[in-house]
């Protein structure tokens, strides 16, 4: 155990966050995201009993978002025809605003297929038990 480190950040996840370099990406995936198939070239960490907001909050306490890109946090756009509300995105905005002065401006979106293609390039993936739809987020690491 370490002082000041949220318990949700497992030793494996802390190691991965430390290994990541500038511009590396990590996906925090909802429960419906195909983490294992998209993450076959990366590291997959399972945090099935947790939701994305609590993991995002814990990570951003230590993880700088990239200042060399306009949108270091990326969400998957809702597909046309899907009648889905995304109130969880408001939660993400609140959390990101606490840790990045750009706030909502640091968050971008990609179409579903483009999101999957970009996700495949990520260094690591966190599989969660998040039940909200379209709750996936890619974070791009900055410098300390």
From TrEMBL:
One Gene Ontology biological process: fucose metabolic process
Isomerase keyword on record: yes
InterPro entries cross-referenced by the UniProt entry: RbsD-like_sf, RbsD/FucU_mutarotase, RbsD_FucU
Reaction catalyzed: alpha-L-fucose = beta-L-fucose; beta-D-ribopyranose = beta-D-ribofuranose
Alphabetized Pfam families for the sequence: RbsD_FucU
Residues annotated as signal peptide: none
Gene Ontology MF annotations: D-ribose pyranase activity; fucose binding; L-fucose mutarotase activity
Keyword terms, alphabetized: Isomerase
Keyword Isomerase among UniProt keywords: yes
Domain of life: Bacteria
Residue ranges crossing the lipid bilayer per the database entry: none
PANTHER family: FUCOSE MUTAROTASE
Protein's recorded name: Fucose isomerase
Gene: fucU
């Amino acid at each position: 155990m370490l002082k000041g480190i949220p318990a949700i950040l497992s030793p494996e996840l802390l190691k991965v966050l430390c290994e990541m370099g500038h511009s590396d990406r990590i996906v925090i995936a909802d429960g419906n995201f195909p983490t294992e198939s998209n993450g076959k070239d990366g590291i997959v960490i399972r945090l099935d009993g947790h939701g994305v907001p609590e993991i995002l909050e814990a990570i951003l306490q230590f993880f700088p978002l990239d200042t060399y890109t306009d949108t270091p946090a990326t969400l998957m756009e809702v597909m046309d025809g899907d009648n889905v509300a995304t109130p969880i995105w408001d939660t993400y905005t609140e959390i990101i605003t606490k840790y990045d002065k750009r706030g909502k401006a640091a968050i971008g979106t990609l179409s579903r297929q483009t999101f999957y293609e970009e996700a495949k390039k990520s260094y690591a993936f966190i599989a969660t038990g998040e039940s909200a739809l379209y709750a996936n987020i890619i974070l791009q690491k900055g410098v300390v």
